[in-house]
Amino acid sequence: GGGAPVPPLSANPTKPAAFVFDIDGVLVRGPAVLPAARTAMQMLLSGGAWRAPVCFLTNGGGVSEARKAEELTSWLGVEVGEDQVILSHSPFRQLAPRLGDVPVLVAGRRDVVAVARSYGFSKVLTTYHLAEAFGRAATPFGAAPLTDAPKGATRSGGPCPVRDLGWGSEAAPIRAVLVFNDPAGDAWYQDLQLLHDVITSHGVPLRPHPAPETAAALLNRAPPGSRPVEVFFSNPDLLWANDHPRPRFGQGAFAAALDALHRQTTGGPISGARWFGKPNREPYRLAERLLLAQAVRLGLAPPSVAEDAAAAASGGNGGGGAAARFSAIYAVGDNPAADVRGANTAGPPWVSVLVRTGVFEGREANSATDPAHIVVDDVAAAVEAARHRER
Ligand code: G3P
Ligand code: MG
User: What CA–CA distance (Å, rounded) separates 352 from 332?
Assistant: First the structure.
């Protein structure tokens, strides 16, 4: 109880309900799988009484959707497929048709280089490549250790893309910075320094520097005809919940630091920075499409093109009619600023369900800043509340 008024159920009783689960702070905390997560999944995914489309929507990443599905399968004890997983960087795939053939700088840990290539980016650079090509003076307080580098970020015998192929030169400027997930701790300094270089130099980080060094010089140094670098963040979370008692800094904290430095050196924010990841709309639209495909596969929704077209024409909520095919989409999350705000902004039939096992764990009845439709103790109680409501 104590939640914001829950939107009315659809008048059409034949529509199925669907679920979207956040991962950190809902299903796991650090390496620990929450017992309620297994209970919840047994209710939904073990061929039990209630069949409903399910997706997992996280602001985490660094691995492929298929790899995360394998992790979820082993954590939860139920089969999870890659078409049920939306990671913070999953929406970056849609940028590849435009940016797939130009040098892009990818930041993050684990498998981000391989993931970027699999999305269709063919000229992937990391700050490890830049640090290697530029030498010690580029990161005078120390480069990040190569052991922290994402796989494939270091040259193994092949040409250095910066030195030997000229990526990041006047002839082949870096067109975009894509922050796939949080840089490793030791890479924060390297990434802040080198991303700032790439952004303020319009993608040519060794471009000769105007003297004297002033904020105005940095702001105005881009030669006529050069293009600003496009900057994409995949996860705005300032905070997230692992197994430490207090919330930890997330990618949003890294972005805030980069933006603060940019403001101080140039006098203005990073222009044209774009944000994907919850609470932004892209992952919700992706979830609606994946849920509908599942509903059709499960025989819970007819594969009716006509109905889709009608729903799309009537405006719907911008999801191409996919959302309108559900009585409710329960978005279960722990972070009011990400999960609740995202579901509330997505609009009906999305129903925000806030649990107390992660970022939000206080005794207050609801989040003061982003009140959820439903507030319960944990993810098992969330599924129970939804079942009660759908009956
Ligand atoms: O780095 C992951 C974190 O910011 C949020 O993960 O699963 O709670 O969206 P999640
Ligand atoms: Mg979470």
Answer: 6
Distance 335 CA to ligand 1 centre (A): 9
Q: Do 346 and 209 fall into the same domain? A: no
pTM of the model: 0.91
Q: Cα(73)–Cα(84) distance, rounded to whole angstroms?
A: 11
For residue 25 and ligand 1, the question of a CB distance below 6 A is answered with yes
When the pLDDT of each residue in the chain is averaged and rounded to a whole number, the result is 90
Ligand sitting nearest the alpha carbon of 277: 1
- Positive or negative, the CA dihedral 170, 176, 181, 182 is positive
pLDDT of residue 152 exceeding 70: yes
Cβ of 65 less than 6 Å from ligand 1:
no
Please report which ligand is nearest the Cα atom of 248: 1
Is residue 219 over pLDDT 70? no
Q: Give the residue from 224, 251, 275 where a domain finishes.
A: 275
Judged by average pLDDT, the poorest of 55-59, 83-87, 295-299 is 295-299
124 and 153 part of one domain: yes
Tell me, using a 6 A CB cutoff, whether residue 23 lines ligand 1: yes
Does ligand 1 lie within 6 Å of residue 378's CB atom? no
237 lines ligand 1 (CB under 6 A): yes
Please give the residue range of the domain that contains residue 286: 17-87+278-390
Span between the terminal Cα atoms of the chain, in Å: 18
* Domain match, 181 and 292 both: no
Q: How far is the CA of 240 from the centre of ligand 2 (A)?
A: 6
Using CB atoms within 10 A of its CB, is residue 172 exposed (0-12), middle (13-18) or buried (19+)? middle
